[in-house]
Amino acid sequence: MFGYVKPFKPQLRVYEWDLYNGLYCGLCKKLREEYGLISAALLSYDIVFFELTAIGLGKGDAKDMKLQKQLCPVHPFRKRLCIQYRGDAEDRAAAVQVILSLHKLLDDIYDGTFIQRIRAAALLPFMIIPYTKASEKYKKTAQAVSDAMKMQRQTERDRVRSIDRAAEPTAAMTAAVFRELGGCDPDLRSELSEMGYMLGRYIYLCDALDDLPDDRRSGRYNPLAFHKHARELAKNTVYLTLGRLSEIYSKLDLGEIRSITDNIVYLGLKYTFDSIDGPATVFRCSRRQKQGKE
Questions:
Q1: What's 68's DSSP letter?
Q2: What is the pTM of this model?
Q3: CA 20 to 30 Å from 223, out of 63, 83, 146, 258?
Q4: Straight-line distance from the first to the last Cα atom of the chain, in angstroms, rounded to the nearest whole number
Q5: pLDDT tens-digit profile of 64-100?
Q6: What structural domains does the chain harbor?
Q7: DSSP state, 66?
């Protein structure tokens, strides 16, 4: 995941924004304690939506959350609200973040810029042990992500021009990650899989459009670079994808947490895409925001 799944802050109530940021900080603490500082440094906002979905499906409420204010390496001079969720949701979200982070580093080494390759090569050795630990806990998820990334590299080697085919590996990967939240319920697993699939398509297209100017200059693979009206094509595809994602999401019962996930799905995703594609009056996502650090 790349940091494109975020809420639209102006439409969040204060306590919702505090809860969202508190869960982010809780995940960061969980990663530091269980998987190390490098794993925490690679944390993306995308995984908070995954944890929120897991909490909502488990019908979690305030009594399941441990709240405290604390200092941290990123904010050493001011205490911030840290919320850790008692249950499987936080543990699974942290493990998924580690699994995705390792494969993102491998992808940067394979097809990143010179700076991205250097950075990824430097960080990769520190992620081997955390990845092994996370993949042993969630073997199905780790295997699905690994298979999807192999498919992604083959797609890049073949320089596939089709937007749908190019987005397929990321979509399949995200579908597999969300599917496991459905437990043994086949209908719920199917709905979560399709929602994850659409979310993966959205993430891939946002990343492709965001990187398009640099990829055109460098000659790196980007399926949008083969199309004359790339931005219009990306916009139409993303809007159709978000429409289907919203339709599937509306069927889920996420309990009290839903006000935040509603904001992300109905407002945040479109705003984030428009900030990449839209008019100059819309603030563009900076690289730091994409990575999830304020």
A1: E
A2: 0.90
A3: 146
A4: 17
A5: 778 888 887 777 788 888 998 877 899 999 999 999 9
A6: 9-283 (1.10.600.10)
A7: E
